Amino acid sequence: MNGPLALEEAQERLLALAPPVRIEEVSVDQAHGRVLAVDLRAARTQPPADLSAMDGYALSADADAHSDSGSGPWRIVGESRAGVPFGGALGPGEAVRISTGAHMPEGADRVLLQEDASVEEATLRAGEIPPPGRHVRKRGFDFEEGAQVLSAGSMLGPAQIALAIAAGHASCMVAAVPRIAVLDSGDELVRDPTRCGPGQIPASNGPMLAAQLAPLGVRAARLGPVADDMEALARALSQAEQADILVTSGGASVGDHDLLQDALKRWGADIAFWKVAIKPGKPLLVATRDRPDAPPQVIVGLPGNPVSSFVTAFLFVLPLVRAAMGAAEPLPHSLSVRTREDLPPGGKRREFLRAVMEGQQVRRCATQDSSALMALAGADCLIDRPAGADPVEAGEEVSVWSLRTG
Ligand SMILES: Nc1nc2c(c(=O)[nH]1)N[C@H]1C(S)=C(S)[C@@H](COP(=O)(O)OP(=O)(O)OC[C@H]3O[C@@H](n4cnc5c(N)ncnc54)[C@H](O)[C@@H]3O)O[C@H]1N2
Ligand code: MOO
């Protein structure tokens, strides 16, 4: 038997198995969290004309020549409002009242802030004359029609949605969200948390995993909890036929009742690898299953301990789903952050400590047991402690993975 894989190798091998991207058209305002499947080019120019960036007065381009001792006067000949441009052109010594976002009138090349202006009837004066171009947003400075504004593989967050809409698109081509089934197993598990008999516990992993997937737009089919029983597992697996990705939780270890691997093999799955040198999460299992008229299913078997399930979903399942959605960068990013306290040397496995950001520093949670949900729920990041790492003193930097972004 080969030893556990290193995290990066396991992630690379899993991502290489990602189901192929399917493309669909969605309305941009429904595309939050989706990944763009093709480059997006601007269908319009933004801004569509030279616009004022401030409320004030648009001055004629001859403002310098025209002014006597730097103060005007200019004759106010009209108004340009956002959406209602001034109809004419400015002649020498003329100005128009202008609001933020309004078209610069023809013949105007700068804006005098209203705070710097003095107005008497229709006559405008200023202490200082603004230089040409001041407070003017040039036509097309953000993007020109035809320019590529977003590239394939970009995740569409709020800013990208605003950009796509501003670029004149009502719909866009994105990767379809993969179909995902979540199956948790264990004789002790009950679905209704208010009805636990002796020896039973609520099946919390299924809802937890579904919630981890939800921000990616995934509505996971819940197939558990299922008893540690070959027939029950076979029945549940038969309901996962349509899933592009099957996520299981529990039964991945070596106990007498850990039947998952055998059940998967009987279902027709080929085990790609089992065990990764991380804590929590060592018994992670990855398999594939061929289907006659569809791409192979990818199966990720997560360890049943709730924290192990959570951390391995973060490190493996979410990246796999992002890869299946065509994301250019499916893996999570780490940051360097100073630790608030001393940390002991790294152990045999690379460890992901549940931790909390306190200001600019990070503090690990007191309980690191892989079943401890209180610590997990209080954590907002994971400290990455490499195997065999040197001890770290308070104030030194450690690598941290934020859980806020999923
Ligand atoms: N002799 C060994 N024992 C164990 C090893 C090992 O290498 N040798 N590995 C340990 C590690 S590490 C982990 S992690 C666990 C993983 O085991 P399983 O994937 O087989 O998980 P289960 O035994 O089914 O459950 C473990 C634990 O988690 C609870 N659980 C399971 N599913 C759920 C759920 N859906 N909701 C809430 N809680 C759940 C379950 O009741 C158990 O307490 O194995 C170690 N053992
Ligand atoms: O790997 Mo287990 O997940 O350490 O508890």
Automatic annotation (TrEMBL):
Its cofactor is Mg(2+). The lineage of its organism: Bacteria, Pseudomonadati, Pseudomonadota, Alphaproteobacteria, Sphingomonadales. InterPro entries: MoaB/Mog-like_dom_sf, MoaB/Mog_dom, MoCF_biosynth_CS, MoeA-like, MoeA_C_domain_IV, MoeA_C_domain_IV_sf, MoeA_linker/N, MoeA_linker/N_sf. PROSITE patterns: MOCF_BIOSYNTHESIS_2. Its EC number is 2.10.1.1. Keywords: Magnesium, Metal-binding, Molybdenum, Molybdenum cofactor biosynthesis, Transferase. The keyword Ribosomal protein does not apply. GO terms for biological process: Mo-molybdopterin cofactor biosynthetic process. It comes from Erythrobacter litoralis. It is an enzyme of class 2 (transferase). Catalyzes the insertion of molybdate into adenylated molybdopterin with the concomitant release of AMP. Pathway: Cofactor biosynthesis; molybdopterin biosynthesis. One of its GO terms (cellular component) is cytosol. It comes from the Bacteria. This is Molybdopterin molybdenumtransferase. Belongs to the MoeA family. It catalyses: adenylyl-molybdopterin + molybdate = Mo-molybdopterin + AMP + H(+).
